[in-house]
Amino acid sequence: MREWLTWASVGMEGVLFKRLDGVYEPSIRGWQKYKILETSEAIVGAVTGSLAAPRSLLLGRYDDDDRLQYTGRTTTLPRAASGTVAGLLVPDQRGHPWTGWSFSAGWESRETLNVTLLEPELVVEVGVDVARDTSGRWRHPARWHRARPDLDPADVSRWTSPPR
């Protein structure tokens, strides 16, 4: 199995395993999943909830044309993380690159998120799995690790679109 976990570079998200005599049973968790995870830095471009108590972070990275591209959002922040982040957020004052965008509340959901756009200045470290959608965004919500006020947005890896 260890060798299989090196296949993330070709798009493998993880490994499913089951008992040799096990069969798939809908709605029953008889199989186990091991996901390939990594940590990554991203720039906070918006939040759900309030600036005083952010609920989740909408994340981005700059592309080669210096446009902030949306990469995904976090799961609900733990209370302590929400308090930490709240003191580091700056509301948008210059005209945000995501002005006019709408963000979906979830897979195949028509509900849109109510977001507050921010100056894209805060860098955070998040845990993500290697799954990406067709536009290169993280397929699953990122998990909060920590704020990185020691990093500048220019220090964050550039957005790269997937090959077509």
What can you tell me about this protein's structure?
This protein is mainly β and 164 residues long. Helices cover 5% and strands 31% of the residues. The strands form 2 sheets. Strands 3, 4, 5, 6, 7 and 8 form a 6-stranded antiparallel sheet that branches. The radius of gyration is 18 Å and the shape is globular. The model has no long low-confidence stretch (mean pLDDT 85).
List the helices and strands and how they pair.
Layout: E1 14-17, E2 32-35, E3 37-49, E4 54-62, E5 68-73, H1 79-86, E6 115-117, E7 123-129, E8 143-147
Antiparallel strand pairs: 1-2, 3-4, 3-6, 3-7, 4-5, 7-8
Number of strands: 8
What global shape is seen? Answer: globular
Strand content: 25-35%
- Number of distinct helices: 1
Main pleated-sheet profile? 6 strands, antiparallel
Order of helices and strands: EEEEEHEEE
Q: List low-confidence stretches.
A: none
Which class do the helix and strand fractions yield?
mainly beta
Distance between the termini: 30 Å
Question: Percent helix among the residues?
Answer: under 10%
Radius of gyration: 18 Å
Oligomer designation: single chain
What's the average pLDDT?
A: 85
